[in-house]
């Protein structure tokens, strides 16, 4: 069984020339899948989590974004080999251009554009104020479009080193942007989605159309035929279905359920036959896109290029395969010689075996002919005996058939009597239940009449109660109207009295304000003088504090130096003590060796005296 990702899939991209798709997940693995054969072609685990991945159109190169670098890798037949590491930290989005000569990578709010084959930096874009969420290339690779969490969409011209257009929607965090190039007018149109549950169309820095989606859309992709726009719903903690919008947009769509969590990436193949989506639930879906016009589909398939079958290998791999091929050719030659020898040996054995089998076959035919004659005689005897047995069995069968017919007639008469009795009992039961049914119907009709009479009496009493309540309501309304008029008149009188009092009080307060304004000017001048004196004192205090801080730092540094010197002195005292003890031990050992040397010299002289001739 093919192993799948364990945990969310963070990045995905599809190859143009081969039926391959690459994914990376939080399980620190990067996997290459064949979406036609539904198999995993390659899988490699890394020491850290891969945030994003992109597939070169040729199918020979990958770029993978890690927390500390962006790695350009060659996709070999059996492995992924690193080619170049670029210092881009936390790359959450990377895309190859349509021609494959450039690639763009993001790092927080910065976008860097590199040449693919030389890894030379082309442009660095710093216009975003928050994290960049998505980038996209135009059809001719001259324009790069980006969007970020601050709600901005920027359009850059890579060749002329300038920003062509921009638009900012405040309060919205955009998550994905795509660009559509109209070949007739050679103009670019961007489509963006974000947290405001809208699908927006932007052209030339202006918002030209807005489609209410009714849900948060997370990812977008446009078919290469520009007839269908696919979108992934990304509501938090909700399933993530796929939507198919008609293009140009008119708001109508069809929705297909698939993921159990929001989709993280969606891509479409270059032939518009398959839609691929991955999600936080760790699943990869492959949708088969079928068009209604079968004639058009047939013509497109006939004019379509077949997937490339080239592979990328290293020189060492080819040399190893060449050595293996030569070894296999040598083994094949040895096997051929062995097989020829065994065939010649087996042929001679077969000839001898044929001679023996022919003689045995002739003897067996003669014995079988004798057996055949005996069996034919036995067959004729058995045939006569079987004819006699068949005649006896036919006579016995006739007698048994007659006996069975007599017993059947007797049983039929018994069953007929039993049927007549059961019919009489059934008729009696029907009469009894008909009478019971009639009695129940009469009792039910009587109960219905009693209930109708009770209901009519209760309805008449309720009507009288309603009439009394309505009379009470009209009386209360008249009383309320009289009291409201009286209260309004009292309030008007009170308002006129308060108005006169407040006007007199307001005039007195204006006089006080004029007098206090002059006093305030005098106090303000005194306050300014005191503030200037306070600032001078604060500046002196700050200088004293700065001098005290520098002196304290000097004292602390001298104190640390003193402690370090004391510690070094104590360490050296310990070292000196150890050295002196070692010297004492060596002196003692030297004395022992001197004594041992003296003894050995004495023994050497004794041995020489013993060896020398006595004469």
What does this structure look like?
With 615 residues, the chain is α+β, with helices and mostly antiparallel strands. Helix content is 50%, strand content 27%. The protein has two helices and 27 strands. It has helices spanning 294-303, 315-611; strands spanning 9-14, 20-25, 29-34, 39-45, 52-55, 61-65, 70-75, 80-86, 94-96, 102-107, 110-115, 121-125, 132-137, 143-148, 152-157, 162-168, 174-182, 187-194, 198-203, 206-212, 217-222, 228-233, 240-246, 253-259, 263-268, 274-279, 284-288. A four-stranded antiparallel beta sheet has the order 1-2-3-4, with no helix packed on it. It has a four-stranded antiparallel beta sheet with strand order 5-6-7-8, with no helix packed on it. A four-stranded antiparallel beta sheet has the order 9-10-11-12, with no helix packed on it. The radius of gyration is 53 Å and the shape is flat. The two termini are 100 Å apart. The mean pLDDT is 87.
């Amino acid at each position: 069984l093919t192993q799948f990702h364990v945990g969310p899939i963070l990045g995905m991209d599809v190859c143009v020339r081969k039926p391959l798709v690459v994914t990376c997940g939080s399980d620190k693995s990067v996997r290459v899948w064949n979406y036609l054969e539904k198999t995993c072609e390659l899988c490699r685990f890394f020491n850290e989590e891969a945030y994003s991945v992109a597939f070169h159109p040729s199918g020979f190169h990958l770029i993978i974004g890690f927390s500390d670098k962006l790695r350009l890798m060659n996709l070999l037949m059996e492995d992924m080999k690193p080619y170049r590491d670029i210092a881009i930290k936390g790359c959450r989005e990377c895309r190859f251009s349509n021609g494959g000569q450039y690639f763009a990578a993001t790092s927080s709010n910065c976008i860097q554009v590199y040449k693919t084959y030389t890894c030379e930096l082309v442009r660095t874009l710093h216009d975003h104020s928050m994290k960049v969420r998505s980038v996209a290339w135009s059809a001719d690779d001259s324009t790069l479009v980006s969007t970020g969490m601050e709600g901005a969409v920027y359009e850059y011209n890579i060749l002329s080193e300038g920003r062509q257009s921009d638009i900012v929607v405040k309060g919205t965090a955009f998550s994905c942007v795509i660009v559509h190039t109209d070949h007739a007018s050679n103009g670019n149109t961007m489509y963006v989605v974000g947290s405001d549950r809208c699908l927006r169309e932007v052209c030339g820095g202006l918002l030209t159309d807005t489609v209410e989606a009714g849900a948060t859309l997370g990812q977008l992709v446009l078919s290469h035929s520009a007839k269908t726009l696919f979108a992934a719903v990304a509501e938090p903690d909700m399933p993530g279905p796929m939507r198919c919008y008609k293009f140009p947009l008119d708001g109508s769509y069809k929705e297909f359920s698939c993921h159990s969590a929001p989709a993280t990436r969606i891509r479409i193949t270059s032939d518009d036959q398959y839609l691929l989506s991955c999600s936080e639930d760790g699943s990869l879906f492959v949708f088969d896109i079928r068009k209604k016009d079968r004639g058009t589909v047939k013509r497109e398939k006939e004019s379509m290029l077949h997937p490339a079958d080239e592979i990328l290998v290293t020189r060492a791999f080819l040399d190893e395969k060449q050595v293996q091929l030569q070894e296999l050719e040598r083994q094949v030659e040895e096997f051929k010689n062995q097989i020829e020898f065994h065939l010649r040996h087996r042929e001679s054995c077969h000839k001898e075996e044929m001679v023996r089998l022919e003689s045995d076959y002739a003897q067996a035919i003669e014995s079988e002919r004798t057996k055949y004659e005996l069996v034919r005689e036995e067959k004729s005897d058995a045939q006569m005996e079987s004819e006699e047995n068949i005649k006896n069995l036919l006579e016995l069968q006739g007698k048994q058939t007659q006996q069975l017919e007599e017993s059947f007639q007797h049983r039929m008469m018994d069953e007929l009597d039993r049927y007549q009795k059961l019919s009489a009992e059934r008729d009696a039961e029907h009469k009894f239940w008909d009478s019971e049914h009639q009695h129940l119907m009469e009792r039910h009709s009587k109960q219905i009449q009693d209930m109708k009479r009770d209901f009519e009496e209760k309805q008449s009493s309720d009507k009288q109660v309603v009439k009394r309540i309505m009379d009470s309501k009209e009386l209360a309304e008249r009383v309320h109207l009289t009291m409201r008029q009286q209260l309004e008149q009292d309030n008007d009188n009170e308002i006129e009295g308060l108005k006169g009092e407040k006007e007199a009080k307001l005039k007195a307060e204006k006089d006080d304000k004029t007098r206090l304004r002059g006093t305030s000017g005098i106090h303000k001048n005194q306050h300014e003088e005191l503030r200037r004196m306070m600032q001078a004192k604060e500046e002196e205090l700050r200088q004293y504090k700065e001098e005290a801080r520098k002196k304290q730092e000097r004292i602390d540094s001298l104190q640390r130096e003193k402690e370090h010197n004391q510690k070094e002195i104590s360490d050296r005292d310990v070292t000196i003590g150890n050295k002196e003890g070692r010297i004492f031990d060596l002196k003692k050992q030297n004395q022992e060796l001197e004594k041992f040397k003296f003894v050995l010299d004495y023994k050497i002289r004794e041995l020489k005296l013993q060896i020398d001739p006595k004469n």
